[in-house]
Amino acid sequence: LEQDLKQALENNEMEVWFQPIISSKTHCIHELEALARWRHPTKGIIFPDEFIPLAEESELIISLDRYILIHALNALKKLRPLISELKLSVNFSVKTLIQKDIVDFLDKIFLETDNPSSVLNIEITETGMTKNEKNLIQPMEYLTQKNIQFYLDDFGIGYSSLYRLHILPVHVLKLDRFFTSRTGNGYRNIVEAIIMIAKAMNKTIIAEGVENDHQYSELLNLGCEFMQGYYFARPMPFTDMLKLIKTNPRWIPLAANN
Ligand code: C2E
Ligand code: CA
Ligand code: CA
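A: This is the predicted complex of the input protein with calcium ion.
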């Protein structure tokens, strides 16, 4: 599979799909998360859970993250005229972020794709961070100066350290789907507490995996502005995202139709 994956990158079999992150205040798309999909010639679409862990074991993850970034920024360039201020979030392995040439690489890509560096948010998982905390501070601080923002992915289920939130330049916490799906199920107070911590530390919360009207209303009541999930839209290929943005740029809550 590893050899297959290498070839997939060379043969352009890897695709970027996009999922919108919605502002519950404006009901507009605030940003897009880029998610990798492998269009395998015989097996069809393969999802990241099947190849990211494998790629993480080698240096392949660096090539993959860079590939996705380049393709996503090229797509973003075409979408930005339709939604001004539209931003892009990409998932980076910590390995990708601590490469010595990361700053030069990003500078080059912004130039080549004709995007300002401020369009980019980089999502990193908590588990990745714990292993490389010290090596992360320098690239993160440097890239923050270039107006790139850092998102702490899957927040709440791993080693959610308040100390780490303090020493690393993290701007956004992505509340893990585990909590989103349990807001009405005894976990409401934890979600409320996480949102309060984020506010006190001047960080934004994005709730992941919002799937229904109930979860949406609960999160709204708890003061969570940004949300992402199947309730709004599933990840989709670029052409579908383009269509969605052109025909339906505002997302209307179900409750408003009742
Ligand atoms: P993630 O970053 O936490 O991404 C969110 C995952 O939740 C995505 O799975 C997305 O399709 C799924 N999702 C979104 N909304 C909902 C919902 O309402 N309900 C449910 N049940 N699921 C929802 P996906 O695309 O399969 O990606 C899985 C993971 O693979 C990602 O989790 C991310 O950690 C990793 N990944 C994806 N693309 C890349 C990449 O380019 N580079 C790296 N390093 N990791 C990537
Ligand atoms: Ca993510
Ligand atoms: Ca996540």
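The mean pLDDT is 93. Residues 38 and 46 are 5 Å apart (CA to CA).
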